[in-house]
Design goal:
The structure holds two protein chains of two kinds. Chain A has helices at 16-33, 35-54, 64-94, 97-102, 108-136, 145-167, 172-189, 204-207, 211-223, 231-251. By secondary structure, chain A is mainly alpha-helical. The chains are: A mainly alpha, B alpha/beta. Bound molecules: adenosine-5'-diphosphate and magnesium ion (MG).
Chain lengths: 255, 315
């Protein structure tokens, strides 16, 4: 066994972009390889899109796919940035993965950047698939793509903050349970496929403060009605992002 | 002389030891895990921190790695505070357990770790050296415990660090895997890398360490080279009927000899093992009407040193 390994010290960190890209690539592959994650991020959104666009379960004005597609895009962002990320991060902490990365030259901000890039990368795939399916079903989107991009980025920040807040404080199993529960509750309450007009009028203003409702409403106001800058939803998402990321940054336990 | 060049590189400009710990204290609630520990690990050498489970090895090493905060005392790693970010690229870390995503393939993880460094070792060659080449595509969770340990060791050295911390690198390994690990540690030392490892195997510390620091209850009980710790003294061991009166035997032995029965029926004579000793002992046994069995002359082991210093077996 004659190998050419030269153990002589030659320490040095790689350039930050290379480290971040390598880590982001590894995280993206992990998300796309994990069956449960795929179910959450692609299969369920596509099934909801097809099911609720076809079946007369909801009554809306205009083609149903025009109502459902923006909600499903919002759901896709939530499933990756919040549910998927919370569960994955919870187990990474449990298995000492975060701790071990802490001993590598990749800094914590670098790791956060990589995680964000991986989430955005998966979202690009989700948006492409969902839009393709929706367009095949006769979807006619309106509005400025720039506002959509802004909403997705802010939604990602808000949901990531919420996900990391849970993953950074609860045990891995508790994170798994909480992330799934919150996902289901927000899916039901946030106007993703059921219009929030169906809820009692008294609680509708409260529902509109949920990040999922803000994202869904924002997406719908742009994509379905060709509306301009979605100021209300943007403000709600911004507040969620600042608060959750701020608190998560303080409370996150790496071990 | 290539050796001189290596030595100079390893010592660096400041010439500080690889690791220096003074009066270190670490508490967890009411437990004092590290209780005023002082030690120093030389550059370019292999230092083994030896002690039973719960002695405070992991606490000490993880404070040096910057993972845990000390409650008292001072720690310098390569002359710097453990929290210094510049150490991340210079120090390799092998955790006592875990650290790798369970679904990630062995080769994939090692390549990722290599990507974090400017001049890494070739991950494929390193896997090969550690006997993991066939498992490059195996997810971490499907590796055996020993294979997981070796992958973790590979991750600690792939960045070509000048100092590596290995926390129980051979715990639970089969003999073959242990030799593979020792081979790598020896190779690191030859290349001028400083190695600090923890172990509760005496024989491991004796075989691969230049310097052994024995700790118990969070304190150093002895430190030195394996040879100075075990001493030049040899010992003679034999088995016989329990409860023999050793005083008479001692009077027949040279000055400075010691004799004890531990455990019952097992006798140990320490001191100058002179040519006549064997004859003296067998003659005495004959006069007592017993036969000495399993007579052997051995060097004292670290096991004996530990037992002497703490009154306990290292398990
Ligand atoms: N995170 C922790 N919380 C509470 N107690 C701990 C923790 N880590 C270690 N201990 C305690 O500190 C003592 C030393 O542990 P450790 O440093 O892991 O020793 P070793 O590595 O030598 O087995 C033990 O009594 C252990 O139970
Ligand atoms: Mg330990």
């Amino acid at each position: 066994m004659t190998s050419t390994l030269d153990f002589a010290p030659r320490p040095g960190a790689a350039p930050l972009p290379r480290m971040v890209l390598a880590q982001a690539g590894a995280e993206m592959r992990a998300m796309l390889r994990n069956g449960e994650q795929l179910l959450l991020t692609l299969i369920i959104p596509v099934l909801l899109l097809v099911g609720f666009s076809r079946a007369p379960l909801i009554s809306v004005t205009g083609p149903r796919v025009d109502f459902v597609a923006p909600g499903v895009l919002a759901l896709a962002v939530m499933s990756t940035a919040f549910t998927g990320q919370a569960i994955a991060t919870g187990f990474e902490r449990r298995y000492g993965v975060l701790k071990r990365l802490g001993a590598s030259p990749l800094s914590r901000p670098g790791l956060m950047l990589a995680k964000t890039a991986a989430v955005l990368g998966v979202e690009v795939i989700q948006v492409a698939v969902i839009c393709a399916v929706a367009l095949a079903m006769g979807w006619s989107p309106h509005g400025d793509p720039l506002w959509i991009a802004l909403l997705i980025v802010l939604g990602t920040a808000a949901f990531s903050g919420l996900g990391l807040l849970i993953a950074g404080t609860l045990r891995a199993e508790a994170t798994l349970a909480a992330a799934n529960l919150v996902y289901l509750v927000l899916l039901g309450l946030g106007g993703v496929v059921f219009p929030i007009a169906r809820f009692p009028e008294g609680i509708q203003p409260i529902l509109e403060l949920l990040p999922i409702t803000a994202l869904t409403n924002g997406m719908r106001s742009v994509l379905a009605s060709g509306g301009g800058f979605p100021a209300g939803p943007v403000l709600v998402l911004l507040v969620w992002a600042v608060v959750t990321l701020g608190v998560a940054g303080r409370t996150f336990r790496w071990e | 002389m290539p050796d001189a060049a290596n030595t100079r590189l390893a010592e660096g400009a400041d010439g500080a030891p690889a690791v220096e710990v003074r009066d270190l204290v670490k508490r967890y609630g009411r437990t004092t895990a590290v209780d005023g520990l002082t030690l120093s690990c030389a550059r370019g050498r292999v230092t083994a921190i030896l002690g039973p489970n719960g002695a405070g090895k992991t606490s000490t090493i993880e404070i040096c790695e910057g993972f845990r905060q000390a409650d008292g005392g001072e720690v310098r790693v390569l002359g710097l505070a453990p929290s210094d970010r510049s150490l991340k690229a210079r120090v390799g870390v092998m955790l006592q357990a875990g650290g790798v995503p369970p679904a990630m393939r062995a080769g994939e993880w090692l390549r990722l770790m290599a990507r974090f460094h400017a001049h890494p070792l070739d991950p494929a060659a390193l896997l090969d050296r550690l006997g993991l080449a066939e498992h490059a595509r195996t997810p971490y969770r499907r590796l055996s415990g020993g294979q997981q340990q070796r992958l973790s060791l590979a991750g600690a050295i792939v960045g070509r660090p000048e100092l590596v911390f290995l926390d129980e690198p051979t715990a639970g390994l089969d003999p073959q895997a242990r030799y593979a690990c020792w081979d790598v540690v020896t190779g690191l030392r030859e290349a001028g890398v400083s190695v600090v490892l923890t172990t509760h195997y005496m024989d491991e510390a004796e075989k691969i360490a230049d310097q052994v620091i024995i700790i118990d209850h969070g304190r150093v009980v002895a430190a030195g080279t394996p040879a100075t710790l075990t001493g030049a003294e040899r010992q003679l061991r034999f088995r016989a009927r329990p409860g023999l009166n050793l005083d008479e035997l001692l009077s027949a032995l040279p000055q400075g000899s010691a004799a004890k029965e531990s455990p019952a029926g097992h006798y140990i004579i320490e001191g100058q093992v002179a040519p006549g000793l064997l004859a003296t002992v067998t003659a005495w046994c004959a006069s007592e009407g017993v036969t000495a069995e399993d007579l052997s002359i051995e060097r004292r082991t670290l096991e004996d040193v530990f037992l002497e210093l703490t009154g306990r077996e290292l398990r």
